[in-house]
Predict the 3D structure of the following.
Amino acid sequence: MPAPSARPDDRPVLQVGATGHLGQLVLANLVSRGKRVRALVRPGSDASNFPKTVEVVRGDLLDPASLRGVADGVSAVVTSAIGYSERRKGDSLRTDHEGNRNLVDEARRAGVPRFVLLSILQCDQAPDVPHFWAKKETEDYLGQHGVPFVSLRPGAFLYAPQGPYGQMIRQGIENGQVFGMTPEGVRITYIAPTEVARAIGLAVDEPRALGQKIDLGSDRPLSGPEYAALIGRVLGRPVQMAPPQGGRAGNDDMMAMFRFFQTGKYVADTRRQAELFGPVPSVEAAARDMLRGLGLLPGH
């Protein structure tokens, strides 16, 4: 089980990426654990649903001048910010490269004692997947510039996306199909975003995590057909694997990721996760979280 830190630290945690799906889960986790949170939010992003205790500061990772002072006096920086998902018009991998370097530079200037980076499982094994490699380069940059860091490397998220993509996933499952990403015999790691958020929150204080690159996952990896069978068992009706879709048409980054999945390397070693953050949850629990989020199971 996680060891408590030597003493409570009442300085704020600087959170970057708090308006995203995972970021909102991280914010809720930090607040529920009594943490003071200073959230860095881009101009134009809506932070009106944040708890009133959260201090909102405006800035942009691609504008170094706007970051000056945001990390002063914090106990840790936590970032789940990404640009490769193109969630907002104008987003790009510049955030994952240049933006992350700018944030590291500000953390170094402020003497931040801990930088918790949301990375990606096996990012250092995937030079052909641009957004994976960007995480590896950020880990390297942190080390090269002497910023104390924790890198958390989760597997593939099982979550219920909003908007048309979420509707497509729901409709597919209702029609007895899920999108599998690997064939029989090739397994990858899945994880619930709630578990990732929990690990991020614990990593802020866990003394043994400092300096570590930590895989995050569920209790076992699954092939595409095994994943489809799992969804069927949880729902109580047959579900088959549909062919991989490869992301949006023309998205070379996502296509490269799917090719990497076929190598069988995208599997977490969860032993360190268990040592630092407690029992590793089952992949069934992750599937139930996703299906509840899609409105396909009671309880959400």
Q: What stands out?
A: The two ends are 29 Å apart (CA to CA). Residues 2-6, 246-250 have pLDDT under 50 and may be disordered. The CA atoms of residues 143 and 198 lie 24 Å apart. Residues 94-110 form the longest helix (17 residues).
